[in-house]
Amino acid sequence: MVDHTVPIIMLIVVLAVVALAFAASCRRGAGTEHAGWQRPGSSTRGTLAAAGALQVAAFAALACGLLAARAAVAGDLPACLRRAAEQAPRDVLLAVRPSDEELLARLVYAEARSTGFADDPRVARAIAWGAMNRVRLAEVSASARRRYGSGVAGVVFQPQQFNPAVSRRSPFAADFLCPQDAAAWRLAVEAAGMALRGHDNPLLDTAWERRHGLSLVVNFYYPRSAQARGPLAPWEGSPGLRFIGEPESADLPPAGRVRFYRLEQPPADLVPAARRSSPPPAGGR
């Protein structure tokens, strides 16, 4: 996306300088006429012209300030990507090769908007942790890799999972490609960074999870989303997944906003050598 903010600011600055120069010229002219012969009404016209020019300059200065503020906000946002009608969001993103943090933040941003609670930092954190739980489980299980994808990009773009990232028809694909809400984007970036670092995962609840440093909470559902088919997920009550209930952690949203589901059993092919202890405290390695 081409940002025209800077050229517009430059144009307004030029107009402001011209207006100020004109105002100064009018004032000098009025002063000269006071010192010598003065045509009837000329002093009044000069004063009015100077006042008008000063008003133009003041307006230009205000416009510059507003545009500069807009440019500062826009600087917090990632590149706005466009796609052809036949392109999937995945193809557009992979072409620019974003970092894992940006890619995860884009997913968090778009998914959070789809929940109806984009301004809730707990929702952003929930999505980021849920996605990274899949990434980390796939690192130590071949069956999890086949199901959820490999790495951040593999999980984000796994078919039939996160619609904003894979569906051409998702109403939230535009949010994935072109985040425009700076405040919501900052929440998404913060949540993505926290989940990528892996410290203090609020979804490490069971003894097995804490012992292995892996969360089995890998499915989540947004009951208030415009795309939701009902208050319960389609897989509610299915074997192999269990609704975790209301989260105990204050870092997570209530189940009315995001419903979490835990695998009943860890993958049978979990690689023993790859089983990790819990992540180190913040600042550790």
General description of the model:
The chain folds into two domains: about 70 residues; about 190 residues, no CATH class. About 55% of the residues lie in helices and about 5% in strands. Strands 1-3-2 form a three-stranded antiparallel β-sheet. The longest helix is centred in the N-terminal third of the chain and has 33 residues. The N terminus and C terminus are likely disordered.
Strand order of the largest sheet: 1-3-2
Q: What low-confidence regions span 5 or more consecutive residues with pLDDT below 50?
A: 1-9, 32-39, 60-74, 277-285
How many β-strand stretches?
Answer: 3
> Percentage of helical residues?
40-55%
Task: Name the average pLDDT.
Answer: 79
Distance between the termini: 39 Å
Q: What pattern of helices and strands is seen along the backbone? A: HHHHHHHHHHHEEE
Q: Strand pairing plus helix content: what structural class?
A: mainly alpha
Strand content: under 5%
The global form is globular
The count of domains is: 2
Q: What's the Cα radius of gyration?
A: 28 Å
Tally of contiguous helical segments: 11
Main sheet, how many strands, which sense, barrel? 3 strands, antiparallel
Topology:
Layout lengths: L4 H31 L6 H33 L14 H8 L3 H16 L5 H19 L2 H7 L2 H6 L6 H4 L6 H5 L4 H16 L9 H6 L4 E5 L19 E3 L15 E5 L22
Helix pairs in contact: 1-2, 4-5, 4-10, 5-6, 5-10
In short:
This protein is mostly helical and 285 residues long. The chain has 11 helices and 3 strands.
